[in-house]
Input
Amino acid sequence: MSSRLPPPAMALFGTSADPPTIGHQAILAGLAQRYPMVATWASDNPLKHHGAPLVVRCRLLQAVVDGLKAGIPQGRRLELRQDFSSRHALDSVRAARTCFPKARLLFVVGVDLLPQIPHWYKAPQLLRCCCLVVVPRHNGPPQEPAMARLQAAGAQLEVLPLRIPPVASSQVRQRPDPALVPKELLPLLTSRRLYGFTGHDGRTHDDRQPPKET
Output
């Protein structure tokens, strides 16, 4: 009887992190509780106009990772792996496979991206070399048809059993709110005046009260 252990699972979570929100933080925390290894990275999306350069978004995401490490169960790993970053998901998975040849790779995607995946770069190859872990969206549109199409195409799918705060980076870019971003980010956001955060106390320009008349 074989005593070989199953390969360790490694969750791969690339994100624009423009900026990272409490939603990103919740996803990473949930992944770290569920899987023995989690790798994340900041990415450039060719279809988006980003609010900060990639190097800055990478620093912000690193701050989120560092803030979560104290709460990770012993023996589990959560790392920023910027070397996995690519505009193509398949290239990111291949980079992870090179570094972790024995791991079971799980590529994490938001449920709203499922209809797009068949049109991604070399999608059939991507679906053959990893499992897709789907992050649900609170009150989002149902994606059962898209999931069924992917499964018919040979995809392995797992749905992450988490309730993620319904916060998007676009909300922060439109109106900066300290409550929507991890607290670890506020010093960097305010010191560099990123995304409209201008007060060293975490307040934004719109939150400031006008000076009193004397």
